[in-house]
Amino acid sequence: MLDDRDQKILMLLEDNARIPISALARAVNLSPTAVRQRMARMEREGTIEGFTVLRKKPDVTSAMQAVVMLQLTGSFCKRLKEAFGHLPEIRKFWSTAGELDAVMLLEVTSVQRLNEITSQLNDHDLVSRIQTHLITETQLDR
């Protein structure tokens, strides 16, 4: 069971996996040894699965993100992926359960390109309904 200090350690590590143990210890009001022990326990228990390097994405100031939600004529996400998976603007593509069948996260450089992609999707015989939402601000990104 994770307590508040464990949660704060995890939050700080998610924000910066290279944060010094001494800074973690100060942030959670524990000794560096206690923080190391907590981290080791969370690794053993599988709460922390590992540490990784994330490369910085190129700074594209003109890039926009949009969420595209699709209702399909059946369970055809794999076929839709085959038809559109080559598009580099599709950053994520999820199959979903519920009213909508699929959700895509697109990253485009213009509204025109967004319209081109959504038109292609809308014209595909597997797509019965499409909703597009432009992302205006990120509130949380973990």
Describe the structure in your own words.
This protein is an alpha+beta fold and 142 residues long. The protein has helices at 4-15, 21-28, 32-45, 77-84, 111-123; strands at 64-72, 90-95, 102-108, 127-134. The chain has a four-stranded antiparallel beta sheet, with helices on one face. A hairpin with a 6-residue loop joins strand 2 (90-95) and strand 3 (102-108). Helix 2 (21-28) packs across helix 3. The two termini are 21 Å apart. 12% of the residues are buried.
Q: Categorize the overall geometry.
A: elongated
Low-confidence stretches: none
Mean residue pLDDT? 89
Sheet with the most strands, sense and barrel status = 4 strands, antiparallel
What radius of gyration results from the CA coordinates? 21 Å
Structural class: alpha+beta
Count of β-strands: 4
Helix content: 25-40%
Order of secondary-structure elements: HHHEHEEHE
What order do the strands of the largest sheet run in, or round the barrel if closed? 2-3-1-4
Distance between the termini: 21 Å
The count of helical stretches stands at: 5
SS strand fraction: 15-25%
